[in-house]
Structure formats: C-alpha cells, structure tokens
Amino acid sequence: MIVALGELWSPRTDGGVFVQVVVTIMLIGVLAWTARREGSVVLLIVGVGTVVLAWYGIRALH
Asked: Are 59 and 20 in contact (CB under 8 A)?
C-alpha cells in the first residue's frame, strides 16, 4: 500500500488526523527522553512539538 506524501501531511479523515496527532506526541516524547540530560534541548523539543500540535489545531478549525 502506497500512501501519498500529501495524505501524510494533511489527512482527509478524522481517523488520519487522530493517528497524526498520536504519532506526533509519541515522537515528541521519544525525542525528549533521548535528550533528557540536556534541559535546554528538551525544552526546545517540547516547544517545537507544542507549536506543531497548535498548528494541527488551527488547521482543524479551518
């Protein structure tokens, strides 16, 4: 099964959006855990992740 890049970037179904958000949260967690010894890097990862999740929310409103 081949998935188009556009479908990963902007899913058309609610299920796809849910999976995108869950994968993003898990990726943020893994990256933050990997960089746990450097507090500033963890803060950067969590901050960028929060901006990405906020972007998903704003996109959902439109």
From this structure: no
Q: What range does the domain containing 9 cover?
A: 5-61
> In the chain, how many domains are there?
1
pLDDT above 90: residue 5: no
- 43 and 26 Cβ atoms separated by less than 8 Å: no
Q: What is the DSSP string of 5-37?
A: HHHHHS-SSHHHHHHHHHHHHHHHHHHHHHTTT
d(Cα 43, Cα 41) in Å, to the nearest integer?
5
Average pLDDT of the chain to the nearest whole number: 88
Q: What is the token pair recorded at 58?
A: 């704003």
Question: What percent of the chain has pLDDT above 90?
Answer: 56
Which DSSP letter does residue 62 get? -
